[in-house]
Amino acid sequence: MEFLFVLIPIFAIFAIGFIGQKRIGFDTKSISTMALYLMSPILVFRTFYTTAFNEEYAYFILYTFGLCFLLISVVFILSWINGYTNSQTCGMILASAFMNNGNYGTPVVLLLFGATGLESAIILMVIQQLVMCTIGVYYAAKGGKATSGIKESLRAVKRMPIIYGAVVGGMFQLLHIELSKSVYQAVDLVANAAIPTIILVLGMQLATISVRNLAKKKLSFSLAIKLAISPVIAYVLTLFLPVDDMTKQIMIIMAAMPTAANTTMYAMQFDTEPEFVSVATLFSTSLSLVTLPIVFWIVL
After folding, report:
1. Could you give the CA distance from residue 60 to residue 234 in angstroms, rounded to a whole number?
2. Those residues with Cβ within 8 angstroms of residue 149's Cβ, 6 or more apart along the chain or in another chain
3. How high is the pLDDT of residue 218?
4. How far is CA 236 from CA 55, 136, 171, 251, in A?
5. CA 270 to CA 90: how far, in whole Å?
6. Residue 182 and residue 189 in contact, taking contact as beta carbons nearer than 8 Å
7. Which residues make Cβ contacts (< 8 Å) with residue 294, sequence separation at least 6?
8. From the CB of residue 82, how many other CB atoms can be counted at a distance below 10 Å?
9. 10-residue mean pLDDT series, the chain (300 residues)
10. Which of 86, 101, 82 lies closest to 139 in space, CA to CA?
11. What CATH number has the domain spanning 4-291?
12. Global pTM?
């Protein structure tokens, strides 16, 4: 299928990071911190700056946050049944509740629906960015060894420059503030480099993980939630939304996307099960080669 070509650059960058870490060795935490605090805010700023807001956003926001909280609820139930620790639960949330709607989901929607579906995909991507840099950061901080309690987790969210990048980008969009050509070129360069850097870090992180120590049962739960339960919940949610059929199809397909690479960065920054989140991201991306065609066949 054509969508397989979307994965080639992703896996190629995984491989570069993996080989580089094995052959040379890098301080992945420092690179991750740079991507999180310097590059990602610029990427989010550009995303919100270039995306026009409209009344459909209300439905998309309701859907995206609703899906996220329902997936988190499923994780909490499974964690309670299996007696997982706070850190293990938060790691599962990072691996199960946030999908790769950017460099994976949006190109796939473009291939399936053309330019007519691209606008909806971009809106979902923008809102997903907001969800990840708030709820995602909150649970990453909550599960970290250096953070305890809700107040400290919320303070960690407030300290994240990604949020302010989104706010400033949205304000510039709403107030029609235009950047000069030279400034926008600088923004574009950093934003374009952010996603490849994040994927490189994931590849580097995978190079340090021992498969023998893999929590197979927990990983199976996470993959099932991300690739199977998520699109089912999305389908149920779309039944209650006053949007057209194509938009509903896009919502379900985007919900079936694998784990977002950004979650590995959050997990590394706060030391919240970084090995588990990294492996879940790789496995979910690989298994999506099988699960996504099934979702396409059911939905389309």
Report:
1. 12
2. none
3. 92
4. 22, 23, 33, 11
5. 11
6. no
7. none
8. 13
9. 71 88 86 87 87 77 94 96 93 94 82 82 85 90 73 78 87 89 92 86 80 80 95 95 91 93 87 90 88 90
10. 86
11. 1.20.1530.20
12. 0.85
Give the C-alpha separation, 53 to 51, whole Å. 6
* φ, ψ for residue 257, nearest 5 deg: -70, 155
The residue type at 281: T
Tell me the one-letter amino acid at 57.
Answer: Y
Name every residue whose Cβ is closer than 8 Å to that of residue 63 and which is 6 or more positions away in sequence.
Answer: 234, 237, 238, 241, 251
Q: How far apart are CA 131 and CA 56, in angstroms?
A: 17
49/161 Cα distance (integer angstroms): 16
Residues whose CB is less than 8 angstroms from the CB of residue 272 and which lie 6 or more positions away in sequence, other chains included: 87, 90, 91, 94, 139, 140, 141, 142, 143, 144, 266
Is the Cβ–Cβ distance between 17 and 202 less than 8 Å?
yes
Q: What does the block give as tokens for 179?
A: 């950047």
Dump the DSSP string for 68-107. Answer: HHHHHHHHHHHHHHHT--HHHHHHHHHHHS-B-IIIIIHH
Could you state, in order of their start, the residue ranges of all structural domains in the chain?
4-291
Alpha carbon distance 127, 145 (integer Å): 29
Q: Are 255 and 231 in contact (CB under 8 A)?
A: yes
What pLDDT, on a 0 to 100 scale, did the predictor assign at position 63?
A: 94
How would you label 209-248 residue by residue, b for 16+ Cβ within 10 Å and e otherwise? eeeeeebeebbebbbebbbebbbebbbebbeeeeeeeebb
Q: State residue 160's pLDDT score.
A: 82
pLDDT of residue 136: 92
